[in-house]
Please model this.
Amino acid sequence: MIIDEMIECYRVRHNYTQAEVDRLLEVCPLAMAQLWNKMNPTTPDQVSNFYSSVDYTAELLRYHDIESRRDKDMDIVIEVRAKNREARVLDFGCGMGVIGFMLKDVMPKLTVELYDLGSPAFDFGRDFNVSRKRPVEFVNTFDIQHRTYDFIICNDVLEHLIDQSLAETIDLLQSRLASPYGKIFAQIGFYHEPHIIPMHFEWTEKRCDILRKVMRWEFWDVNHDFLNLVMQGRLGLKQNRTVTANLGQPLS
Model:
């Protein structure tokens, strides 16, 4: 699987022994939380600077190496395969690019593009991409603004954005959908554990109001308290094990 290849690439890149890598993947991901609390970013620029200056590659390797996360990564690939066999796909907020790489391997005819803020993790994904038999394209905001997409993946991204950035991101992604069948596929971490993940902004009513603008989005695994307390009544989402809603119509 792609994540195994990336872990091995990371080991070789840093000249780690296998034992060192195994210990790295067992460490509780608190280091990033401690850095966040120390830097305390509160503006879009400060949040961007945090992710561009902190090497969270190991955090992402741990995250994707968890068995349940591997299953969800594959679920996303299966969902895209069912809808788009020869399409242009954007993985927005791709991290290292795990899902994009998987998509390209499973469906070589897809045009797969990856975007994230500049960061050591993103650079690692770029380096990994160079030696792949089926490379993807790493893009910037200028590229995105001049292209349209049949399918946009926004996986574990929205909860990392402050209100202003959240609204701007939703507007940008919706403007890039190919008409009339383009779709955005989002997975959102609704849990809020500030001692472990202070990088996740809590879903206040104001932030939920921002989501009222979404059209042609599908949300994946919306099965946390957030759904029950806020979203169910406000957006009319149906709860499911996998895809929980198809917001195919404008919301009144």
In short: Residues 41 and 117 are 15 Å apart (CA to CA). The mean pLDDT is 82. Strands lie at 88-92, 111-115, 137-138, 151-155, 183-187, 217-220, 243-247. The chain has one domain: 67-247.
